[in-house]
Specification:
By secondary structure, the chain is α+β, with helices and mostly antiparallel strands. Helix content is about 45%, strand content about 10%. It has helices at about 15-25, 55-75, 80-85, 100-105, 155-165, 195-205, 220-225, 240-250, 285-315, 335-355, 360-380, 385-400, 405-440, 460-465, and strands at about 35-40, 45-50, 95, 110-115, 120-125, 170-175, 185-190, 235-240, 255-260, 265, 445, 450. It has a five-stranded antiparallel beta sheet with strand order 1-2-4-5-3, with helices on both faces. Strands 6-7-9-10-8 form a five-stranded antiparallel beta sheet, sandwiched between helices. A hairpin with a 5-residue loop joins strand 9 (about 255-260) and strand 10 (about 265). The chain is elongated, with a radius of gyration of 29 Å. The two termini are about 45 Å apart.
């Protein structure tokens, strides 16, 4: 593999040299799925290379039939390349001048025609990747709304987006990443909306990736383009919904489409981007606001409920007399903090088990967990009932978080707060909560503060976070995105 700074080797003019190169470098003759067809078109030797399984056979048959018709016409031409370029029955025909681009095109699922003595190839996009059809994502379901979601095919994903945004300024820049995998990655943005500096930054980060392959697709890309380290909080947002991706494009975000992944990366993303859900915008503003507040309450409970409840247990004097009932009524030989950690870990065990359990068995697993493990654990004295109650409420708050990555990060934060409160009680809770907030304040996603619009404070944007405004009232795009055209309702 040549480096990026080396000049690409030109495509040989001899078909024999090209065939030899393919045998030595691409495994032609060894790999059963890599093939070549040798034709004569208008008395000229023409070969085309393909990969079985990645090409749509019907397109290839149609192209071969059209070339046979040219032979029957018995025309004499001098410029075979230009003639074929004009007569190949397909909408996507591109010239290829280097041997590296030729091999990459073939292994990407295109068929490439090469002609004797020409030194140029014609790539025809006949890709027919195996995969599923668009369907509603399991992690982003809505009561009302579209049921088509992204799939593992980058061509379908960009088409789903363009179906919703038919703007002539919508751009999808394609690059190849991975010395061996040569994975297709598309950068999506609207030219006069997205900040040029943001687009350039994303482009440079992607072009700077040097790795042999991207088997884990978008997650590997994320780790290269954001310097996250051991920070558990997500700095980009994932979505499998085409409508959600389109909304973010119109706000000025940049989208990263990675082939073989059904998720699209949205950059940048603040904390409050991760707590939004499409359901809020599929209902009336009042209902959407109610759903949003309910979700905020669930997220807060997933972080603070257990540390606060344990703090009231170890220091009951903090509670007013009317709330003195808060706390365990039963006693146990196991410390409450151990019970909380064990129960919380138990829910995590169940979540992981649910992922690995086949769907027909998941119901049975839930019954075993709820009826047998939970009830028997209380009966034998392993847990007091209040521990099960508050851990369950906290777990529900975790599951109500729209972003899976954010929910896991919040759970880690809850664990840390619990441990600090166990050792240092009230001072520990105050200091740990302050440090936790400062930690979030210091996070930036592509230069944007993580807790914007509350820190730094933006009154108008904060109101839009708290209240789901009607679309006609949302006139401007988010100021933090530095959009080229801030007006949502302008004609251009």
């Amino acid at each position: 593999m040549i480096s990026k700074n080396e000049e690409k080797k030109l495509l040989p003019k001899s078909l024999t040299e090209i065939e030899t190169y393919m045998k030595e470098h691409a495994g032609l003759g060894k790999s059963f799925d890599l093939g070549v067809r040798k034709l004569k078109v208008l008395r000229k030797d023409v070969h085309f290379y393909y990969v079985n399984g990645l090409c749509d056979t019907s397109f290839i048959i149609e192209i071969i039939e059209s070339l046979d018709e040219l032979n029957n016409s018995k025309k004499m031409v001098t410029g075979i390349v230009q003639y074929l370029e004009q007569n190949i029955v397909h909408q996507s025909v591109t010239r290829v001048y280097s041997i590296e681009d030729f091999v990459t095109a073939v292994l990407s699922g295109l068929i490439v025609f090469v002609m004797e003595g020409e030194g140029v190839g014609l790539s025809v996009d006949t890709r027919g990747y195996p995969g599923r059809q668009p369907q509603e994502p399991d992690t982003e379901k809505v009561v009302r709304g579209s049921r088509d979601g992204f799939v593992e095919n980058i061509i379908l994903n960009t088409a789903l987006t363009r179906r919703r945004i038919r703007d002539e300024r919508l751009r999808f820049e394609m690059i190849h990443v991975g010395l061996r995998s040569k994975t297709d990655i598309a950068i999506g943005y609207i030219e006069n909306v997205a900040s040029p500096s943001l687009v350039e930054k994303v482009r440079k980060e992607l072009q700077a990736i040097v790795v042999d392959g991207l088997p884990m697709a978008d997650k590997t890309v994320e780790e290269f383009i954001v310097n996250q380290g051991f920070n558990p909080y997500p700095l980009v947002r994932y979505t499998e919904r085409a409508d959600v991706a389109s909304v973010h494009l119109l706000e000025g975000h940049v989208l990263i489409y990675v082939d073989t992944s059904p998720s699209v990366i949205i950059a940048p993303a603040t904390y409050f981007h991760h707590v939004q859900h499409a359901e809020e915008y599929r209902q009336s503003p009042a209902v959407g606001t109610f759903v949003r507040w309910t979700r905020f309450l669930g997220i807060l409970s997933s972080i603070l409920l257990l540390p606060l409840w344990y703090l009231f247990i170890v220091e009951p004097g903090l509670l007013p007399e009317k709330l003195s009932y808060i706390g365990p009524n039963d006693t146990s030989s196991i410390p409450i903090i151990i019970q909380l950690l064990l129960a919380d870990l138990g829910i995590e065990f169940l979540r992981i088990a649910a992922i690995h359990t086949p769907t027909p068995l998941s119901t049975a697993m839930g019954l075993i967990a709820a009826v047998l493990i939970g009830q028997i654990a209380v009966d034998v004295g392993l847990f007091v009932p209040e521990v099960i109650l508050y851990v369950a409420v906290s777990g529900i708050g975790t599951f109500s978080t729209p972003s899976y990555e954010l929910s896991v990060a919040n759970k880690i934060g809850r664990f840390m707060l619990l441990i600090v409160v166990a050792f240092f009680h009230t001072p520990g809770f105050i200091i740990a909560t302050t440090v936790y907030l400062l930690f979030l304040v210091r996070i930036k996603s592509f230069g944007i503060p993580y807790l914007w619009p509350f820190l730094p404070f933006d009154p108008k944007a904060s109101i839009q976070i708290l209240i789901r405004r009607a679309v006609p009232g949302a006139i401007l795009r988010p100021k933090i995105m530095h959009a080229g055209n801030r007006s949502r309702q302008s004609s251009r």
